Amino acid sequence: MSDIADIVTREVPAINRYLEGAAGTLNPLVQPVVRHVLLAGGKRLRPLLTILVARALGYAGEDVYPLACSLEFLHSATLLHDDIVDGAKLRRGRESAHVRFGSTHTILAGDVLLALANRLVAEYDNPELTRILSEALLQTATGEILEIAHLRDTDLPLDTYFSIITGKTAYLIQASCHCGAVLAGASPTLCQAARDLGHSIGIAFQLVDDALDYTSPATVSGKPTGGDLKEGKVTLPLLLYLAGLPFEERRRLADDFRQDQLSAEDIEYLRGNIVAGGHAEKTREMAAEYLAKGQAALALFPPSPEAELIGDVLAPMLARDK
Question: Which string of DSSP letters, residue by residue, matches 115-141?
Answer without folding.
Answer: HHHHHHHHTT--HHHHHHHHHHHHHHH
